[in-house]
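Now for a specimen:

…
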Amino acid sequence: MTEPQNRRPLKVRSLRIMQAVARKLCAAGLTPNQISIASVIFAILASICISNLSKGENASAWLMPIIAALFIQCRLLCNLFDGMVAVEGGRGTKSGELFNDIPDRIADAVLLVSVGYATAPLFLADILGWICALLAVMTAYIRTLATAIGAPTRFIGPMAKQHRMAILTIALIFTALESMYTNAFYALYIALIIIMLGCCATVWRRARAAYLYLENM
């Protein structure tokens, strides 16, 4: 099967277990659009966990960030399977691109803003969360704009969606350890700084790549 040009290249799609799950989802009658919406639900659940991180006041303080990390991974799995059900399963719809992009922007914003407020006692953390959310949306905006005006679709990083979610997941695992000893979530704060800087670099690289292509086509 020929890969659509505007599809994010992921080696994990070729894994047998992923293909088997995608077939099960197709057999269950789930549509790609429903799976895309489910990704937002998982992101909201993760953000609720992040917003209610324990301050180390009880023995189960480590549990909430671990659950949040699991929900983030569920969100990413939805992002994987909606495309597999649409393309490999042949269940794509004419409005599929809307469901492919809009839920992702909502999910990114919800997660990053919640991290900002969770770390709000730290210097400008809440503002940092909003900046990260805006930059995350900007990375996708430049990609889709470039495609719309004739440039190739580029998913280049260093801070594409999967990289942002990987950093958040790792930070939440460290937060599970932190929460047993401190009232501040430095791992999440550092993650926001890394995501902000990485998104700035990604915005620059994607915009520059589109500019160079369009000027030299």
Observations:
- The chain has one domain: 11-216.
- The first helix runs from residue 16 to 27.
